[in-house]
Specification:
The protein is an alpha+beta fold and about 300 residues long. The chain folds into three domains: about 5-95, no CATH class; about 100-215, Tetrahydropterin Synthase, Chain A (2-Layer Sandwich), CATH 3.30.479.30; about 235-305, no CATH class. The chain is about 50% helix and about 20% strand. It has helices at about 10-30, 35-50, 145, 150-170, 175-180, 185-195, 215-240, 245-260, 265-280, 295-305; strands at about 5-10, 55, 60-65, 70-75, 80, 90-95, 100, 115-120, 130-140, 200-215.
């Protein structure tokens, strides 16, 4: 609850009602001259009248008090509370954490996600792909006085739209693969953005429980491309890393040089020998600059050519 709202517990409401009853009893008894006993009797009657306005506030709810139909910043907490009949009325507000699924399985049965495109404004080469997503939004009311100033349906719609719009906005600048891989980080960022929508609503959680390709065929093709890319990267690591093809070429070229071949010739022959052993060939006709280390230069040129 916000700091400017005033909480009235069951104990407080009883104390207030008893005090008010006593004050009324003595006020009424004075002109009647009934004395203390009479004042006490009238007080008991007054309290019995006030007790008819008792109301039970359920667990995890609060009762916002209205005075002559006007909403106040006083509220009853859970338990039996005593209000003033005819003057006060109670509006119950559920304070439990609310969990909303987007799309709503009740209002939109059979719809397992909302769709949007990623990669719309991404880097050149990033494909525009349709994604299907489903999210769970958790909220809690922090200020019932302000909350009752709005239409609950409008609040729910605004929060849902804000969450979806922010997800779409972030997805527009990245690839489908990146969006799916980083959905937890995106969910945290969207939660912070939606939390700023209303001062009286706290967003306690936002989870992207589903983020996948909307089209099964597109997903299949993307997975195939990812597998091929992974293989290519693995081969490149094997060729260019320590102990890889370039390392072996250098070692074979050194051995050929020790056997009497000129360094530049040894380097070219080593490239052919090693790649033949590995069952793959790259054009070995490398133009050397005539530097002081032909083997290192040849291997460097071969490595650069292999990367491309």
């Amino acid at each position: 609850m916000s700091n400017d709202q005033i909480e009235i517990s069951p104990a407080t409401s009883i104390i207030v009602s008893v005090g008010l009853s006593i004050a009324l009893g003595f006020t009424i008894s004075l002109p009647l001259g009934t004395g203390i006993l009479g004042a006490l009797a009238i007080s008991i009657i007054c309290w019995g009248f006030l007790a008819k306005g008792s109301v039970k506030i359920p667990l995890n709810e609060v009762g916002v008090i209205t005075f002559l139909g006007t909403r106040t910043k006083f509220y009853f907490t859970e338990g039996w509370n005593i209000s003033i009949p005819f003057l006060w009325n109670i509006i119950l507000v559920d304070k439990k954490e609310r969990v909303w699924e987007i799309p709503d399985p009740v209002k939109e049965p059979g719809k397992d996600g909302f769709t949007f495109f990623v990669g719309i404004s991404g880097d050149p080469g990033v494909s525009k792909v349709e994604i299907k997503s489903r999210i769970i939004l958790k909220t809690k009311i922090t200020d019932t006085f302000e909350y009752l100033s709005y239409d609950p349906t409008a609040i729910e719609k605004a929060l849902r739209n804000k969450a979806i719009d922010d997800i779409r906005s972030r997805g527009a600048s990245m690839s489908a693969e990146k969006f799916i891989a980083n959905k937890n980080t995106i969910a945290t960022e969207v939660k912070e953005a939606v939390n700023k929508q209303y001062d009286f609503i706290e967003v306690t959680g936002l989870d992207i429980v589903k983020a996948d390709f909307a089209d099964a065929e597109v997903k299949k093709n993307e997975q195939a491309r990812k597998l091929e890319r992974s293989k290519t990267e693995s081969q490149a690591a094997d060729m260019l890393g320590e102990g890889g093809t370039s390392d072996r070429i250098s070692k074979v070229a050194t051995m050929l040089t020790l056997a009497g071949l000129q360094p530049d010739e040894a380097a070219r022959k080593a490239i052919v020998i090693v790649q033949t052993q590995e069952g793959r060939m790259t054009d070995s006709r490398i133009e050397l600059s005539g530097g002081s280390n032909p083997i290192a230069e040849a291997v460097a040129l071969w490595t650069e050519r292999s990367k491309s």
